[in-house]
Design a protein that fits this description.
alpha/beta, globular, 4-stranded mixed β-sheet, 12 helices, 7-stranded mixed β-sheet, binds pyridoxal-5'-phosphate
């Protein structure tokens, strides 16, 4: 769409003001430079259930869910009530409250291999801290990770290039997803000096189809780590609680040594956690961990409520079923219009792409057309389902997609 049709008038006014006082106007992956200027919302105003509204009053069915956290939908009444109750007593405390202990107990009972839990606010806090725990425990230096995987904004892993020193990454080494040979090469090269391997449960790089683990991949990694005394860190920040409430390793049939959660742990309240095996408890107690807001009890109360609802309502099954309906419907709608669509990743965290679209032009136009009709489809990041998406929402989305396919077909894309 053109930016002149007034759909984003207030957004663009705000953006011009922001450009003067905020570097880049909107930074990170929500910036219009990354997400198609004139096609995707710039600033959001409010949200409810699976819907949200931008500052121009445009309404969207939300398939990003705050880039993951809103697993039960926006403004879930029970989660918000639990947070508000806690907040009446205190907002930001000098000490942890009882709810931190209760939440650690709850998580440790949910995630079978774990014996302890610690908390932070963002995913990046936890991935970076986990690396330090692995290094402290093993007294080794090297960390192996998968090329193209996202683990946050630490200098050791940010996908950005600015402001980094060569030294930031001299002990970080990449192998390829599902490529045991490239993993074994690093194992051989650095044997005896590898502290940890950090991986997401399936590979979900931006701009590319997601990749599930091939048969035997995870068991190979797990066995090698055990044999070599390497700490296996599962970065379950994006998929956590969406595939299995006990952690995504259960879904794929292996066990890590540390697991990092964040998105979906408290339905939008700022909280992250790392859980670990008992053998890592001493290292975990030595690696310094704190932050200005990290004792805040409201997010932890929200998390207790969120976990309870997810368990009671079997959110994992709901997401699988609506996600499957969405992705099957999109593949089928694409076929009707002559397109071969590829749905990748688990249905709860899906990625859609067109076959034969290396420039992503077709995908961008398609997502832009669906978005302007009222369902937010990110063109190159995986999507998220929430428990608030109903089959009716999916059906409405599929009608929008049908029209969007027709539009891009007319454009000859
Ligand atoms: C797999 C994974 N790891 C780490 C992070 C970083 O989390 P945060 O943005 O909360 O720092 C993300 C965020 O998208 C993620 O998806």
């Amino acid at each position: 769409m053109s930016s002149s049709d007034n759909r984003f008038r207030r957004s663009q006014e705000l953006f011009l003001r922001a450009a003067k006082v905020i570097p880049g106007g909107i930074y990170g992956h929500a910036g219009p430079a990354v997400a198609l200027p004139g096609a995707f919302p710039y600033y959001a105003e409010r949200a409810q259930g699976c819907r949200y509204w931008d500052v121009d009053g445009n309404e969207y069915i939300d398939y990003l869910c705050g880039y993951g956290p809103m697993i039960l939908g926006h403004q879930h009444p029970e989660v918000e009530a639990a947070a508000a109750r806690q907040q009446r007593d205190a907002l930001c405390l000098n000490h942890p409250g009882p709810v931190m202990v209760e939440l650690a107990e709850r998580l440790v009972s949910l995630v079978e291999f774990s014996a302890w839990a610690v908390f932070g606010k963002n995913g990046s806090d936890m991935t970076t801290w986990s690396l330090q725990v692995a290094r402290e425990h093993t007294k080794r230096r090297k960390i192996l990770k998968v090329a193209g995987a996202y683990h946050g904004i630490g200098a050791w892993c940010t996908p950005g290039h600015a402001g980094l020193l060569e030294e930031d990454r001299i002990h970080i080494h990449d192998f390829n997803w599902n490529d045991i040979e490239s993993f074994e090469r690093l194992l051989k090269q650095f044997r005896g000096d590898i502290a940890g391997v950090i991986m997401t449960p399936f590979h979900h790089p931006a701009f590319h189809a997601s990749q599930m683990p091939s048969p035997g991949f995870w068991s190979h990694i797990e066995t090698a780590c055990r044999r070599e005394g390497i700490v296996l860190i599962l970065d379950d920040i994006r998929a956590g609680f969406r595939l299995d409430l006990g952690g995504s390793h259960k879904f794929f049939g292996f066990e890590p040594d540390l697991i990092c959660f964040c998105k979906a742990i408290a339905n939008g309240h700022a909280l992250s956690a790392t859980l670990g095996r008992k053998e890592l408890r001493i290292a975990a107690s030595k690696v310094f961990l704190t932050g200005s807001y990290w004792n805040g009890p409201a997010a932890m109360a929200a998390s207790m409520a969120c976990l309870e609802i997810m368990e009671k309502e079997d959110t994992v099954s709901t997401l699988r079923s609506t996600g499957t309906m969405l992705m099957d419907g999109l593949v089928e709608a694409g076929r009707r219009h002559g397109y071969t669509m590829m749905a990748s990743g688990p249905p709860a965290v899906p990625f859609l792409s067109f076959a034969d679209d290396p420039s992503l032009r077709r995908q961008q136009r398609f997502c832009a057309e669906v978005t302007r009709r009222g369902a937010l489809f990110h063109p190159h990041h995986n999507w998220f389902l929430s428990a608030a998406h109903t089959p009716q929402d999916i059906a409405a989305t599929l009608r929008m997609a049908d029209e969007a396919f027709a539009v891009i077909r007319d454009e000859g894309l």
